[in-house]
Design goal:
A: 2 domains, two-stranded antiparallel sheet, 3 helices, 24% helix, B: 420 residues, mainly alpha, 2 domains, 2 strands, 1% strand, binds iron/sulfur cluster, membrane (chain B), Electron_Trans/Redox (chain B)
Chain lengths: 186, 420
C-alpha cells in the first residue's frame, strides 16, 4: 500500500517533469526556427585595444584584419602599413607597423599601392587598423573570421572587450563593416 | 595668425574624425586605375559550423541510446567505459567541449528572458535530450556521455568515502551555482558556467594557467573522490538529479531480487546506494506531525532570510555586469589623478551620453535586486528541503541506488551475486 502510493506520486511527478521539458523545448524550438547566430564585432565601436589578439580561445585569434578594398585609397604612405614618422617608404621590417609582417605591400601603378593581409600571419592585434583609422580611410577592419571561429557559446573576447563591440549576429549578416554595407549573402 | 590656422585645421581634423565612421571614403578617394588592375575581393570566409551542429546532435542521440542499452540491458561496465572514452575524444577533444549540455542551461535561460536572442537548435537539443533520456532511464547521460563526467570517471582509481555531513554540505553548492548562473544568464551578463568550466581548457590545450590549475586539481581529486565536479559543482546535474528521481526505468543493482547479502553495500564510489530501512526506524504519527509543522515554519523563514540576504548583496552581484562596472568606474573617474582605462576610453569614443549609461546600469542593478531576492529565497528553500530530507525516513526493503545521486556508472552491478 505504501509502495503503491509512492509509485503513484512518482508517476505524477514524472508527468509534471515531462510536461516541463516538453514545454520549454516547444517554446524555444519555435524561437530557434529563426536561424543560427554567430559572434561578430562592430568595427565602428572597436577601439583596437589589442585584446582581440589575446582573449580568443583559439590561438592565434579567430579575429583577423580584413581589408575592405572598396574603401582603400591605395596610398603610398599607408597609415596601416608604416609606422608613424617613417624615414623612407621601404618595406623593411623596422618600418612596418604590423608585429608579424602580415601585410603585403605591392605596387599597382603610380602612385598607388595595394595592401593585402596574409591571414595566416595576422594575429588580430589591430595595430594596423588603428593606424589606418587615424591616418587613412579606415579600410582595414577587425572581423571575426568565421572559418576559424569555433563560435563559442560565450565568446571569450566579448566579455573582455572594453568597447562592447561584440554581439551575436544572424548568420545572414555574418560580417559587419563600418562605412560599407555587405549586400552579399553567405 | 599661424596659431588660429593650426587650430582650424585641427578642428577640421576632428570633424573629419567624427564623420569618419560614415563617410570614410572621403579622406583619400579610391583611385581610378588605368592599368586594368583587378581588385581582390574582400575576404569573408563562410562559417564552418552548420553541418557539425547537426552531426553533434545525431552523435549525442546515438551515444546516449548506446550507453543506455549498455547499462539497462547489457548491465555492462565495460560498455560504459568504452562509451566514456569515445565521449571524451569526440565531445571533449574533437569538438572542444562546446556546446555542452551543462552550458546549454544558460542559453535556455537567456532565450527565455531575452526575446532578442534565438537559441541555436543544437544548444536546445543538448539541453533537452539528456533530460528526456533521464526521465525515462536515469542519469545515463552522466554515466559516460557528458565529457566532463567521463573524464573524471576514468581518473577514479582509489575511491574514498566522504563523511555524510560533508557530502550534504558540498551538495548544496550546485544549487547555488545553478542559481547564480541563471541570474547572470537571465540578465545577459555572462555565461559563468562556460567561463569557469574546469575541463574545457584542457580539452582545447589552451587554458590560462589559473584555469589549467583548477582543471588539473579537479582531475587529481577525481583519483580519490569520485566525480567532484559532477557532485559538488555541476549545475546541470541539479536538474538531472531532480528529473532522475522520478525516472521510469532506473538501473537496479540486482538483475532480479535482492537477497540482502550486503555485498554491494560499499561498492558505490559516489555513496549513492541506499541501505534498507527497517520498519522499526519508521517514526510514529505524532512526531511526524510535529516535524511537518516545524518544517512548514522553518522553510519559509529560511527563504525570507535568504531572499533578504540576496537582495542586500545585489550590488555586489551586479558588479560582474560589464555595463554596471563601467558606470561605476565612470562615476569614480577623476581625469586628473587616474589614467583612463581601456573601458573608459572605449566608452568615450563611442560618443554615448553618460546619462544613458547610468540609466541602463541602474536598470540592470534593479534587475539584480529582484534577482537577488529570488536567488536568496531559492537557496533558502534548498537548504530547508535538505534539512527536511535529513530527518525523513523512507521505507525501503532492498539495497537500491539513490535515483537522484546515482549516475548509472554501473560499477556496483558486478558486486551482486544474484543471477538473472
Ligand atoms: S577587444 Fe574590442 S576594442 Fe579591443 S580590439 Fe577587439 S573589438 Fe576592438
Ligand atoms: S597589425 Fe595586427 S591586425 Fe594588422 S595585419 Fe598585423 S597582426 Fe593583423
Ligand atoms: S567566439 Fe570563440 S573562437 Fe570566436 S572569436 Fe570569440 S573567443 Fe574566438
Ligand atoms: S551505478 Fe551503482 S556505483 Fe554507479 S553511481 Fe549508481 S549506485 Fe553508484
Ligand atoms: S549485492 Fe545484490 S543482492 Fe546483495 S544486497 Fe546488493 S543488490 Fe542486494
Amino acid at each position: 500500500m505504501k509502495k503503491d502510493r509512492r509509485d503513484f506520486l512518482n508517476t505524477c511527478f514524472r508527468f509534471v517533469a515531462g510536461a516541463g521539458i516538453v514545454g520549454v523545448a516547444g517554446v524555444l524550438a519555435v524561437k530557434s526556427q529563426k536561424g543560427d547566430f554567430l559572434w561578430q564585432l562592430d568595427p565602428a565601436k572597436c577601439t583596437q585595444c589589442g585584446r582581440c589578439a589575446t582573449s580568443c580561445v583559439v590561438t592565434p585569434s579567430a579575429v583577423k584584419c580584413i581589408h575592405v578594398y572598396d574603401m582603400c585609397g591605395y596610398c603610398d604612405l599607408c597609415g596601416g602599413y608604416f609606422r608613424p614618422n617613417v624615414k623612407n617608404l621601404s618595406t623593411g621590417a623596422e618600418n612596418q607597423l604590423c608585429p608579424t609582417g602580415a601585410i603585403k605591400r605591392s605596387y599597382v601603378e603610380d602612385p598607388f599601392f595595394k595592401y593585402e593581409i596574409i591571414d595566416e600571419l595576422c594575429i588580430g592585434c589591430g595595430k594596423c587598423v588603428k593606424g589606418c583609422g587615424a591616418f587613412g580611410n579606415g579600410s582595414l577592419q577587425l572581423q571575426v573570421s568565421h572559418d576559424l571561429c569555433v563560435n563559442c557559446n560565450q565568446c571569450a573576447i566579448a566579455r573582455d572587450c572594453p568597447s562592447d563591440a561584440f554581439s551575436r549576429v544572424p548568420i545572414e549578416q555574418a560580417y559587419k563593416f563600418a562605412g560599407f554595407k555587405t549586400n552579399k549573402k553567405i | 595668425m599661424k596659431k588660429s590656422l593650426a587650430f582650424i585645421s585641427l578642428l577640421i581634423f576632428f570633424v573629419g574624425m567624427e564623420f569618419a565612421a560614415f563617410s570614410q571614403q572621403q579622406r583619400f578617394p579610391k583611385p581610378e586605375f588605368e592599368s586594368g588592375y583587378a581588385q581582390p575581393v574582400t575576404s569573408m570566409p563562410v562559417p564552418r559550423d552548420g553541418m557539425f551542429a547537426l552531426l553533434d546532435v545525431l552523435v549525442l542521440i546515438a551515444v546516449l541510446s548506446l550507453i543506455t542499452w549498455f547499462i539497462l540491458k547489457k548491465r555492462s561496465r565495460t560498455g560504459v567505459v568504452a562509451v566514456s572514452i569515445f565521449s571524451i575524444l569526440y565531445f571533449g577533444f574533437f569538438r572542444e567541449g562546446c556546446v555542452c549540455s551543462v552550458g546549454s542551461v544558460q542559453n535556455v535561460v537567456l532565450a527565455l528572458f531575452n526575446p532578442g536572442y534565438h537559441i541555436p537548435l543544437s544548444a536546445l537539443a543538448f539541453f533537452v535530450i539528456p533530460l528526456a533520456y533521464t526521465l525515462f532511464f536515469g542519469r545515463t547521460f552522466c554515466a559516460g556521455v557528458c565529457p566532463l563526467g567521463a573524464v573524471q570517471d576514468v581518473f577514479l582509481m582509489r575511491p574514498v568515502t566522504l563523511k555524510k555531513w560533508l557530502q550534504k554540505a558540498l551538495g548544496l553548492i550546485p544549487f547555488i551555482y545553478l542559481g547564480l548562473s541563471v541570474l547572470y544568464a537571465a540578465t545577459a551578463t555572462d555565461f559563468i558556467i562556460c567561463r569557469y568550466d574546469p575541463f574545457v581548457g584542457i580539452f582545447r590545450f589552451n587554458a590560462t594557467f589559473f584555469m589549467f590549475a583548477i582543471g588539473a586539481a579537479f582531475l587529481l581529486i577525481s583519483i580519490f573522490i569520485a566525480r567532484p565536479y559532477c557532485r559538488f559543482f555541476c549545475p546541470y546535474g541539479v536538474l538531472l538529479n531532480l528529473v532522475s528521481r522520478v525516472s521510469k526505468n532506473h538501473l537496479t543493482i540486482t538483475p532480479s531480487n535482492c537477497i540482502q547479502c550486503k555485498l554491494c553495500e560499499n561498492s558505490c564510489p559516489l555513496d549513492a546506494i541506499n541501505k534498507p530501512v527497517v520498519v522499526k526506524q519508521m517514526e510514529d504519527k505524532r512526531s511526524a506531525t510535529r516535524r511537518f509543522i516545524l518544517l512548514s515554519l522553518i522553510i519559509p523563514a529560511l527563504m525570507i532570510v535568504g531572499g533578504w540576504t540576496g537582495a542586500n548583496f545585489h550590488e555586489n552581484l551586479a558588479k560582474v555586469n560589464s555595463k554596471v562596472r563601467l558606470a561605476d568606474e565612470m562615476l569614480h573617474f577623476d581625469s586628473k589623478t587616474m589614467k583612463e582605462s581601456l573601458e573608459i576610453e572605449g566608452f568615450r569614443t563611442s560618443g554615448k551620453p553618460v546619462e544613458q549609461l547610468y540609466l541602463e546600469a541602474a536598470e540592470i542593478v534593479k534587475q539584480f535586486y529582484y534577482g537577488g531576492w529570488i536567488l536568496g529565497a531559492f537557496i533558502g528553500l534548498v537548504i530547508g528541503l535538505a534539512l527536511s530530507g535529513l530527518s525523513r525516513y523512507q521505507y525501503r526493503e532492498d539495497y537500491s541506488p539513490d535515483k537522484g545521486a546515482c549516475v548509472s556508472c554501473a560499477r556496483c552491478l558486478k558486486y551482486c551475486p544474484v543471477e538473472k
